[in-house]
Write a structure and sequence with these properties.
GO biological process, one term: auxin-activated signaling pathway
Distance between the termini: 6 Å
Subcellular location: Membrane
Number of domains: 2
Pfam families: Tetraspanin
Number of helices: 9
Protein name: Tetraspanin
Family: Belongs to the tetraspanin (TM4SF) family.
Largest sheet: 2 strands, antiparallel
């Protein structure tokens, strides 16, 4: 019985180690190939999960290979902490991303987002002061609106049939309610009578690549929606990881118990 549970435990930790290496590699890839503050919201959780999982799997492999009870106790403790941490993160992610999404505009390829669509915590963390300036800078550098303006002969009908990402919807065009006239993807004409509604986003729009609507509240809402989507995706991955860690934790307890029995009991009475 000891040999069977130890073999299963060892193989599960091999799988956990492979997951940790893949997670760390993904985080390092994002840092090397994006290197912008826009991606930190996903990079940092990936790095934390990867490092923690790697350490836990390494302890488990050493405890299984050398059959050291102290390592298995350490493993059980780390696994228990990881279970609690993943559950806490999933609960936190649910709380800060449980507001309604933006309102869809019928027949158009985008949504527009409002202040009430997001929790106060998300808004305070990502749309205020220095944090927003860094994100804004990276959006400009990444040229997130470039793909929308590749066809300079595109008419308004074809333009609105495109599928906009939340960031493109908020940052690359003036809000629909402003009533601006479409000339091309990055050039809009304000009505002679002014915007149809009094809203600061309408006056903040500029027909230049480094301005556009990057200073608009709609752009901040688009970024928050993108962060919300990334956190939800990470929460799904965490749920799968949580189920696997609970399985490995249970196996570690069986392996430790069998090893203790093997070293303290007579062999005739041990399974």
């Amino acid at each position: 019985m000891l040999r069977l549970t130890n073999c299963i435990f060892f193989m599960l930790n091999i799988m956990l180690m492979m997951f940790a290496i893949a997670t760390l590699s993904s985080s390092l890839y994002l840092r090397q190939h994006s290197g912008s503050d826009c991606q930190k919201v996903l990079q940092n959780p990936f790095m934390i999960i990867g490092v923690f999982t790697f350490v836990m799997a390494l302890i488990g492999l050493m405890g299984s290979f050398w059959r050291l009870i102290i390592f298995l106790w350490m493993y059980s403790f780390v696994a228990f902490v990881m279970v609690i941490g993943l559950m806490a993160y999933m609960a936190f992610a649910f709380v800060v991303t449980n507001e309604n999404a933006g309102k869809a505009l019928s027949g158009l390829g985008f949504k527009e987002y409002r202040v009430g669509d997001y929790s106060n915590w998300l808004r305070n963390q990502f749309e205020q002061g220095k944090n927003w300036e860094e994100i804004r800078s990276c959006l400009v550098d990444a040229q997130v609106c470039k793909n929308l303006g590749l066809d300079i002969n595109q008419d308004a009908y074809d333009y609105y049939k495109q599928q906009f990402s939340p960031v493109q919807s908020g940052c690359c065009k003036p809000p629909r309610y402003c009533g601006f006239g479409f000339k091309n993807a990055t050039f809009w004409i304000m009505p002679e009578s002014g915007p149809q509604v009094e809203d600061r986003d309408c006056s903040r729009w500029r027909n230049t690549g480094d301005k556009l609507c990057f200073d608009c509240k709609s752009c901040k809402r688009g970024v928050l929606e993108n962060i919300k989507i990334e956190w939800r995706s990470l929460a799904v991955m965490n749920a799968c990881l949580l189920a696997f860690v609970i399985l490995v934790y249970s196996t570690s307890c069986c392996t430790r118990r069998n090893l203790q029995c093997h070293t303290t009991c007579y062999k005739d009475y041990c399974p």
